[in-house]
Amino acid sequence: MATLYLAARFERQPELRVYAARLRAAGHVVTSRWLEQDGPAVPTDAAVRAAQDLVDIEYAWWFVLFTDELLGRGGKDFEMGWALHHGLHLRLVGPRVHVFHHLPAVVQYETVDEFLEAMGA
């Protein structure tokens, strides 16, 4: 089974909690502790949370980025670069939003259902 880090805009946290539960039920390990946090980072804990996210990525073998049409703010794209640097398997769920999503190392799934089916979840 796979060890995965799931990344997305923080506003999608409730949705990704559902996907993480399905992946865990299929025997996968999800390292994304940000899914258990009560709210977005505030300046007093931002550095701690950022460091925690990077550790969680390094414990994974797969980095899965959930995209949508909104570019928005957030660290998900930085996290993808970190994952690329550390040699993780890169998966994209949703549209290719910018040039780095077209790298040969990135495998894209158009829908969440397509990704979950590929993972046996």
Biggest sheet strand order reads 2-1-3-4-5
Class from helix and strand fractions: alpha/beta
How would you characterize the largest beta sheet? Answer: 5 strands, parallel
Question: Which CATH top level class fits?
Answer: Alpha Beta
Number of domains: 1
**For this entry, what is the oligomeric state of its chains?**
single chain
Q: Which fold name fills CATH's third level, the topology?
A: Rossmann fold
Gyration radius from CA atoms, angstroms: 13 Å
The overall strand count is: 5
Query: Runs with pLDDT <50, length 5+?
Result: none
Averaged pLDDT: 94
- The proportion of strand residues reads 15-25%
Shape: globular
First CA to last CA: what distance? 11 Å
How many helices does DSSP assign? 4
The arrangement of helices and strands along the chain is: EHEHEHEEH
Q: Which CATH architecture?
A: 3-Layer(aba) Sandwich
**Percentage of residues in helical conformation:** 25-40%
Entry summary:
The protein is of the alpha/beta class and 121 residues long. The chain is built from four helices and five strands, in the order E-H-E-H-E-H-E-E-H.
